[in-house]
Amino acid sequence: MKPVIENAARDARLAFKLLARDRAFSAAAVVTFALCVGANAAIFGVVSAVLVKPLPFHEPDALVTMYNSYPNAGVARAGNGATDYDDRMREVPALASLAMWQESGVTISESGAAERIPGMRITPSLFPTLGVSPQRGRAFTVEEAQPGAPRVAVISHGLWQERFALADDVLGRTIRVNGNDHEIVGIMPRDFRFATHEARIWLPIVISPDMLEVQRRHSNQFQMLGRLAPGSSLAQLRTQLDELSRRNDERYPQFRELLAQAGYRAVASGYRDDLTREVRGTLLLLQAGVLVVLLIGCVNIANLVLVRAMGRARELATRAALGAGWRRLASQLVTESVVLALAGGALGLGLAWGALRAFAVLGLDRLPRGVEARLDPVVVGGALGVTLLAGVLFGLVPTLRLRRHDLASVFREEGRAATASRAALTARGALVVTQVGLACTLLIGAGLTIASFLRVRAVDPGFTRDGVLTAAIVPPFARYPNDTVRMQYFDRVLDGVRAIPGVAAVGLTSSIPFGDFNNSSVVTPEGHLRQPGESAIAPSIISVTPGYFDAMRIAVVAGRDFDERDFDGATPVTIIDESLARRYWPAGDALGRRIFIGVYEIDLPPEAMPMLTIVGIAREVRTAGLVGQQPPGQLYLPYRQSVAGQSHVVVRTGVEPVTLVASMRSRVAEADPEVPMFDVLTMDERVAASLLTERARSVLLVGFAGIALLLAAVGLYGMLAYSVAQRRAEIGIRMALGSSAGGVFMLVLRQGLTLVAIGVAAGLATSAAGTRLIVGMLHGVGALDPVVFTLVVVLLGSVAVVACLVPAWRATRVSPAAVLKEA
Q1: What pLDDT sits at residue 650?
Q2: Which of 31, 188, 478, 746 has the most Cβ atoms closer than 10 angstroms to its Cβ?
Q3: Distance separating alpha carbons of residues 544 and 566, to the nearest angstrom
Q4: In angstroms, what CA-CA distances link 751 with 301, 400, 433, 735, 809?
Q5: Share in percent of the chain as helix, strand, coil (round to 5)
């Protein structure tokens, strides 16, 4: 054992000495290793946190999520109702437990100071379903979720620390939530997180008897989480949910036709898969991108190692002549390679550490579990494992060449001019072709992604987002228990904000575009009889005040805006968007017609319906993002006739919107100091946040493609430079026989561009097949977009020409006389 350690130490010392002497090679190899390892470790850190790590709950693979789907009505994913909870608890044996939850911001206030914090309403079964318990105290009891029960709360560790300074006697204290005192009964562990919402306080969902009435079926307010019973599978759960739906069709025949036309079904999926459904494709694409970068880097290093080994042929031959066997030489070469790899790997982990922090700028920390992305032992171990494996393999490449060749022949060839080995040049040429092909493929993927992103950014949302500031206010029902006092409060807010210098228009809306809240409901135009198989649709139902359309610059293309005529008690009116008008009144005669929020067959007999008269038609607005599925229209109600529980103030200004924030806070506080203003964002910021995934994907892929292009250019340059050095004698003879400098220049340039052309052709062929895998992530761009393909070819060709210029120029500097003298 001791001789082995001594040999390893000696090899390491010699490796450091030799690598320090060959600084150019060492620096190139270390930097290449660092870029490849750093990029892969950073992305794998995110992928591991979001897709690989087990969820921090008891037996997480048994957790399932359920929701109601009405695709034909334009609502592919709705929530669940209290009736669903009741049905599934009693009639779905595949579920061992079932829970509901609802993301719900709350206002906490002490001594007149109010703060809005993220919260969650849950059934008492949620924590047991997850298999977690409070760090201190207890969870909710079933009795505490009954109407009239004492108000209780469970708080997060962070809220305990910030509000109560980790006081030991916090249990039993009260905290004022939404204007009511709640007793604190539990504190959750420091690292507890559930869903995408980092709640800081939990309140029980109180299921009142009216929530279970037949008329409230398919009133989808909640999210649902279940745990599979031992021995049950997801397939069994889906079958039982379908059977429950069929039984409910028989129990409640009034819903049967409507639900069939809407394509209704209860959907169940694994909780982890559901949590990551929107980001999985993007993360896997990014991981594939950095793996391509790693492959290109490996090819580059292999080329460097081969060139260096050929340059050290005399040194290695001398050591062989002095008695060193090929195993001894192999040990030294592998040690040198491993030293380089470890140095590059260490630097790469440093780059990955910085990249993970820089990813916050792109918003990757806002992905599900994105805040957990870090260089944990799994990520570091994987990076070091890849680094060591690469180091050993790159050390073995020249070793295998040593074993196949007679090193003594180096002395016999010494002093004779020789041209490069055709096999060696072919091998290095093949490596360059591989690099160029991989770089071409990655560049095309990045080009398609960035073209898609630019197309998405150019989509017209239906409103003018520049110069608009938005902020949410939610007056608590404890202080404002009816519509009259709530509207009086909103009037005070509007009057105060309207008086701020620089405000051009101001309004309120119950649902802000690109926000987190959307209220939708089925609508029925007066006299409309659905055709066989025609589904009712559920557009967004939005309450707005006069001034909202002006503030958002949403054009009212026909009819009028809401005004003082539309007060509580006046004729109920509505403004619909162009899509609803086209759907139900294609002849353009929607104004003056009436529409009902509900369904004839279910809600009320036709003669008793509170019909809404259409007084205006507004431009269609994208509310759920610039791309993707949108609600099937918008139906606007005047605020005074439909006062909402929560509101966004929308302000248009001619100055920089953020300069109004302080003034707005002051005016909102004047209206009521216990109602905080929160969710303060410009409309530009809201739209930008909706493009988080597309932006991150584009920026990172372009970065990876840039690294790949650089490595490919360096590989091409290195190969041509070595070729010129090896062909020095041939070039000198050509020039002695009359070849011009221009001819030699073109000879070398043609050699490099031929390799690039072959690599580009291979890359284009690979891309033509591979880009079809990402077509679902592209918007407004085809998988074979000719503009992107052409630009990539031009870019690669331009970079290739630049990489070839220096070696080609050096070839023209070869002196025929010096070459002939050496011969």
Answers
A1: 96
A2: 188
A3: 11
A4: 21, 27, 12, 17, 13
A5: 55, 15, 30
> What does the DSSP 8-state code read for residue 654?
S
Torsion angle of the four alpha carbons 245, 251, 253, 259, in this order, in degrees rounded to the nearest 10 = -20
Distance CA 595, CA 524 (A): 6
Task: With beta carbons less than 8 A apart as the criterion, state whether 618 and 557 touch.
Answer: yes
Q: Residue 140 has which token pair? A: 């909710």
- For residue 541, list its beta bridge partners: 635
Q: What separation in angstroms does the CA of 28 have from each of 24, 31, 659?
A: 6, 5, 49
- Return the top range by mean pLDDT from 390-394, 554-558, 768-772: 554-558
pLDDT, one tens digit per residue, over 111-149 is 667 889 999 999 999 999 999 999 999 999 999 999 989
The number of angstroms, rounded, from the C-alpha of 140 to the middle of its chain's C-alpha atoms is: 34
pLDDT number for residue 420 = 45
Write down the pTM of the prediction.
0.83
CA distance 598 to 258: 12
DSSP secondary structure of 780-792:
S--TT-HHHHHHH
Running DSSP on this structure, what letter comes out for residue 70?
B
The angle at the Cα of 286, spanning 364 to 272, to the nearest 5 degrees, equals 65
For the segment 479-511, what is each residue's pLDDT rounded down to a tens digit?
899 999 999 999 999 999 999 999 999 999 999
State the amino acid at position 49 in one-letter form: A
Contact between 716 and 803 (Cβ < 8 Å): yes
Among candidate residues 792, 707, 763, 717, the one with its CA nearest the CA of residue 294? 707
Cα angle for residues 714, 719, 721 (degrees, 5° grid): 95
Residue 405 has pLDDT above 60, yes or no: no
pLDDT reading at 443 higher than 80: yes
- Cα separation of 689 and 679, whole Å? 13
* Largest CA-CA distance found in the chain, in angstroms, rounded: 111
Short-list 109, 784, 738, 102, CA closest to 451: 784
Would you state the pLDDT for residue 360?
Answer: 77
Q: What is the pLDDT of residues 145-177, one digit of tens each?
A: 999 899 999 999 999 999 899 999 999 999 999
Q: How confident is the model at residue 638 (pLDDT cuts 50, 70, 90)?
A: very high
pLDDT at 320 over 70: no
The pair phi, psi for residue 122, each rounded to 5°, is: -140, 155
Structure tokens at 625: 């993002």
One-letter amino acid for residue 508 of the chain: L
What is the rounded distance in angstroms from the CA atom of residue 463 to the CA atom of residue 553? 5
Cα 364 to chain centroid, rounded: 6
**Closest by alpha carbon to 121, among 38, 182, 49, 173?**
182
CB contact at 8 A, 171 and 177: no
Instruction: Kindly state the tokens that stand for 660.
Output: 């109004």
Q: How many helices (H) and strands (E) does the chain have?
A: 24, 23
* Distances from the Cα of 665 to the Cα of 465, 646, 671, angstroms: 21, 17, 10
Q: How confident is the model at residue 468 (pLDDT cuts 50, 70, 90)?
A: very high
The closest of 445, 499, 515 to 705, measured between CA atoms, is 445
Q: Under a CB-based contact definition with an 8 Å cutoff, are residues 502 and 467 in contact?
A: no
Helix (H) or strand (E) holding 243: helix 234-251
Among the residue ranges 314-318, 417-421, 582-586, the one predicted with the least confidence is 417-421
| Strand partners of residue 708 | none
Pairing of strands 573-577, 594-597: unpaired
The single-letter DSSP state of residue 312 is T
In 3D space, the residue among 186, 205, 270, 206 whose CA is nearest the CA of residue 234 turns out to be 270
The C-alpha atoms of residue 129 and residue 214 are separated, in whole angstroms, by 27
CA 334 to chain centre: 40
Supply the DSSP string of 267-309, one letter for each residue. Answer: EEEEHHHHHTTTTHHHHHHHHHHHHHHHHHHHHHHHHHHHHHH
- Cα 60 from chain centroid? 22
